[in-house]
Design a protein that fits this description.
The complex is a heterodimer of chains A (465) and B (338). By secondary structure, chain A is mostly helical. Chain A has one domain (3-243, 316-457). Chain A has helices at residues 3-42, 45-78, 81-115, 122-151, 168-172, 177-203, 209-244, 246-252, 289-295, 316-345, 354-361, 365-379, 392-395, 401-432; strands spanning 156-159, 162-165, 267-274, 279-286, 384-386, 390-391. The two termini of chain A are 46 Å apart. Chain B is built from 13 helices and four strands. Chain B has helices spanning 4-36, 43-51, 57-74, 76-85, 87-107, 114-141, 160-184, 187-214, 231-235, 237-253, 261-281, 292-295, 299-326; strands spanning 145-146, 149-150, 284-286, 290-291. In chain B, the strands form two sheets. Chain B has a two-stranded antiparallel ribbon with strand order 1-2. The chains are: A mainly alpha (465), B mainly alpha (338). The structure holds CIS-heme D hydroxychlorin gamma-spirolactone and protoporphyrin IX containing FE (HEM) (2 copies). CIS-heme D hydroxychlorin gamma-spirolactone binds at residues 8, 11-12, 15-16, 19, 80, 83, 143, 146-147, 150, 371, 374-375, 378-379, 382, 385, 392 of chain A.
């Protein structure tokens, strides 16, 4: 493999790893704000217990998000100096705004949120939680502005091979940005929602039944409302892409050749795309349905892959399958949410035993859909790093293949180690469940339970079964 | 009137210098805690040492991210060429920071695996400090660049000089860490920190002397100005101040009068060393290839980011100070235990 391919694999690996955590913490921080708000309003102990329970999970996930983010901030320089030289004038300022509006806000208020309970008023503490949540959303805003600009660049001129921004409003609010931002933000909320629901469903079997039912119902209600919105936004996003990156849509649909005048575009349900011979093997397709979805008419045309030279096409197979995984999971989540609402309405939420079981199985569904979505987007942008402006091959740096292989191996090994332990601790926290009288960690004695009349002795998580 | 394209890069040079300095002193003392971790008397003492930084370390590290992002925004050419040249040291630094960072979250959740994360914290901190020193040294020494692309191969950053600066920074951060612990702890932990401060101060001073003596012989022409004409007289106050501050630190380390003073003096030492280097590099950002004007981004990027910085940085500094105030005072082992 050459340095270019290895660099692409490395970038894909480290950012996929990174985004797993933000995807979860963007939703979870808002959920924490919701829980603390319920506590402030009702002062029912269960809300406080739930708050501090999820706060522990948040802290571990956020920590992994932060450290893997530090890696990201240097990838553009170490592996893609060509991209930085040509488009650093756009990515750099947007990333700087992200640091100034989001990262400092999250980091500073996170400390207060984690360790400030008892040192400041409850209202001020709630304010800190809200600032962390707001920070994650600001973060989403700026990083997606820069990413969207790579897909649909606007508001600039190229002078001497370097991008000179002329209209910052158009740079930030580039054509695909509104769709991408909404789709990603909703995707994060969905990801968190299915984790919350799965853990709630799991608690139905043990001592945390009450808390479990509360969590499951919250997740069901939220999922039932948000999934149709996400599917609608996804559809609109696709139409926007058809306008700006037609080859990405052609790859998503594995659409190699025009069917001929007036025959429309089929919807390919399954196939093994064959790039060498520019056709689909073992295709199962529904005639004209593709046209209906993409052009809202039965014989609308979209540009086929063969309308551009082979070196200008994205890889078809991964884009095709990743898209189907995302849409398949989205549909499955919608069905589950609506069936659950129906069961709840009929008072059968707990009677239908298989229903909580399915919720448990769906714990990773959000993560998988979200990462698949990114694979569609990013591989579909190839062979460009900045669509139509800079080819990925011209963005890569002078590092040798060997060096890139070494760094990739270091990241894979290091992340596997850290991630393995992180999951282990998360499982421990979940097994222990919400604790009465929990007031979060204290600086005076680490993570142990505060000395209180009824609390168990200070114990670390590993000691409990 | 000077035109914008002359002035803006100068302002940005100052901004990035400020960001890097903030990072060095703020994360410096947190890394310092980790560098000192192997000297702890028991795990409870390390709990205490880490708790002095637990609520704020993330904010401190964020200055590094600001440094990286601002460098890309204002000097994309420098960002591209410096980071791609320093491929391996940067890899080492970020991986070390990964292990150091997760140790904060994992260690308090662990029981049997606690030692593992204590060691990850220590090793991560030492390696991160060392690689940062190496990066600084390689930059100051000068990177082989032709036609805007790095041509030095995998080991172009390696030199006796960059190894020296790597070691120097480890001890420098350790000094920041020990003076921070004097401020934030009491009892045994504080006594240990006091004991370490004097020898560390001496070692740091020796390193500063060695690095300064080496600088004029580097081929990157850094520090050339120090010895051109009568510039030396103008810049003389810097080394004199360093000596004065070191002397004050020597006596403050063991004095019970103020627990804050040693920390302030250690920070002053860093500010002076940094100022000396920056004055010596000027006007090069990537010596001896790019001056700040040659590396600067298009004007519209410089202006757009400057506006955000002017509005947001005071706000950031404001709530950072507030969060330090929430956690002011000593961190004690006993309070709260029953
Ligand atoms: C602001 C920039 C940015 C953001 C937010 C993302 N990406 Fe990206 N991605 C890039 C900027 C980028 C890039 C630097 O521009 C790459 C490297 C080479 C290329 O063509 O695009 C890239 C490539 C790239 C590849 C390799 C594609 C290929 O070479 O075939 C994958 C799999 C991902 N990314 C995955 C992701 C995921 C899972 C993201 C979710 C957060 C993500 N990217 C967000
Ligand atoms: C190449 C792209 C990216 C870079 C350079 C990057 C950089 C970073 C950095 C440096 C941090 C740590 C901040 C700190 O010190 O507190 C971070 C954390 C974070 N990032 Fe990213 N990031 C990227 C992609 C993304 C994406 C795609 C998202 C989501 C939409 C995202 C959302 C977040 C959030 C919410 C955090 C806070 C930590 C957490 O929630 O786990 N980032 N990122
Ligand atoms: C079920 C219906 C869905 C449709 C029709 C749909 C549609 C799309 C399309 C067309 C893209 C590619 C955008 C591009 O051109 O770059 C995309 C990307 C993406 N999708 Fe979906 N999606 C659906 C469900 C989901 C779900 C359930 C999630 C996550 C929980 C999700 C997360 C993402 C993400 C993270 C991206 C990449 C970021 C972006 O480009 O916005 N999608 N989606």
């Amino acid at each position: 493999m050459d340095a270019l391919l290895l660099s692409r694999v490395q970038f894909g690996f480290v950012i996929t790893f990174h985004v797993l955590f933000p995807a979860f913490t963007i939703g979870l921080s808002s959920f924490l704000a919701f829980l603390e708000w319920r506590w402030l309003r009702t002062h029912l102990p269960v809300w406080r217990e739930l708050y501090f329970f999820w706060q522990k999970i948040f802290a571990v996930s956020f920590g992994m998000g932060v450290v893997s983010g530090i890696v990201m901030a240097f990838q553009f320089g170490t592996n893609w100096p060509g991209l930085s030289r040509v488009a650093g004038s756009v990515i750099g300022p947007l990333l700087s705004y992200e640091v100034l509006t989001a990262f400092f806000l999250e980091a500073s208020f996170l400390g207060v949120m984690m360790f400030g309970w008892g040192r400041i008023s409850e209202r001020l503490h709630f304010f800190a939680t809200c600032m962390v949540a707001l920070g994650t959303l600001f973060s989403t805003f700026w990083i997606l502005a820069s990413n969207s600009w790579l897909h649909t660049p606007a508001g600039f001129q190229v002078i001497d091979g370097v991008v000179h921004p002329v209209n910052w409003w158009r740079v930030v609010f580039n054509p695909s940005f509104p769709y991408r931002l909404t789709h990603m933000a909703l995707g994060s909320f969905i990801t968190t929602c299915f984790v919350v629901g799965a853990i709630g469903a799991w608690y139905l079997r043990g001592v945390h039944r009450d808390a479990g039912l509360r969590l499951l119902k919250l997740a069901v209600a939220f999922a039932a409302i948000i999934l149709p919105i996400q599917i609608f936004v996804g559809d609109q996003h696709g139409l926007n892409t058809l306008e700006h990156q037609p080859m990405k849509i052609a790859a998503i649909e594995a659409h190699w050749h025009s069917e001929g005048e007036g025959k429309g575009v089929p919807l390919v349900l399954f196939t093994l795309p064959n790039a060498a011979q520019e056709r689909n093997d073992h295709e199962i397709a529904i005639p004209r349905l593709g046209s209906l979805i993409l052009t809202h008419s039965l014989n609308g045309e979209i540009a086929p892959l063969t309308s551009v030279p082979a070196q200008d096409r994205p890889p078809v197979t991964p884009v095709f399958f990743a898209f189907r995984i995302m849409v398949g999971l989205g549909t499955l989540m919608l069905v589950l949410a609506w069936v659950s609402v129906f069961a709840w309405w009929r008072g059968k939420l707990l009677q239908w035993r298989w229903l909580p079981a399915v919720w448990r199985w769906m714990l990773p569904a959000g993560f998988i859909a979200l990462v698949s979505g990114w694979f569609v987007t990013e591989m579909g942008r190839q062979p460009y790093a900045v669509y139509g402006v800079l080819r990925t091959a011209d963005a890569v740096g002078p590092q040798s293949a060997l060096m890139t292989a070494i760094s990739l191996a270091v990241y894979v090994a290091g992340y596997a180690f850290v991630f393995g332990w992180g999951i282990w601790y998360l499982v421990k926290i979940v097994k222990k469940g919400p604790q009465p009288y929990d007031e979060g960690p204290s600086l005076a004695h680490g993570e142990r339970t505060p000395a209180r009349p009824l609390s168990a002795a200070d114990e670390s998580i590993e000691e409990t079964k | 009137m000077m035109d914008l394209s002359t002035v803006l890069p100068v302002v940005w040079f100052g901004v990035i210098g400020f960001g890097v300095l903030m990072y060095v002193v703020l994360d410096g003392f947190v890394l310092g805690i980790g560098i000192l971790a192997p000297l702890r008397q028991d795990e409870a003492q390390l709990d205490l040492m880490m708790n002095t930084a637990a609520p704020i370390w993330d904010g401190n590290e964020t200055w590094l991210v600001l440094g990286g992002a601002a460098l890309m925004a204002a000097f994309p050419v420098a960002y591209a060429v410096v980071l791609s040249s320093l491929y391996l040291p940067v890899l080492l630094m970020v991986m070390a920071l990964v292990f150091r960072g997760v140790a904060f979250e994992f260690r308090f959740k662990a029981h049997r695996s606690r030692r593992l994360w204590s060691n990850a914290f220590a090793a991560g901190s030492i390696l991160a400090a060392f690689s940062q020193g190496v990066i600084l040294g390689a930059l100051v020494k000068g990177l082989p660049i032709a036609d805007g692309v790095y041509v030095g191969g995998a080991w172009g950053w390696f030199s006796p000089f960059s190894m020296l600066t790597g070691a120097a920074l480890v001890f420098g951060y350790a000094l920041l860490g020990s003076t921070w612990l004097i401020l934030k702890t009491e009892g045994h932990a504080q006594a240990l920190a006091r004991q370490l401060t004097r020898p560390l101060a001496v070692v740091v001073l020796v390193f500063m002397g060695l690095v300064s003596a080496w600088l004029p012989s580097l081929d990157s022409r850094v520090m050339a100005r120090w010895f051109a004409g009568d510039a030396f007289l103008w810049l003389l106050p810097v080394p004199l101040l360093v000596l004065g501050v070191s002397a004050a630190l020597w006596s403050a380390a063991m004095s019970a009068r103020s627990d804050l003073l040693p920390f302030l003096l250690a920070m002053a030492l860093f500010v002076l060393g940094f100022a000396g280097l920056v004055l010596g590099m000027w006007p090069y950002l990537v010596p001896p290839t790019y001056t700040i004007w040659q590396a600067a981004a298009p004007e519209s990027s410089l202006v757009f980011t400057m506006v955000g910085l002017a509005v947001l940085l005071p706000l950031v500094l404001g709530y950072t100070v507030w969060s330090y105030r929430v956690f002011r005072g000593k961190i004690t082992a006993e309070s709260g235990y029953h």
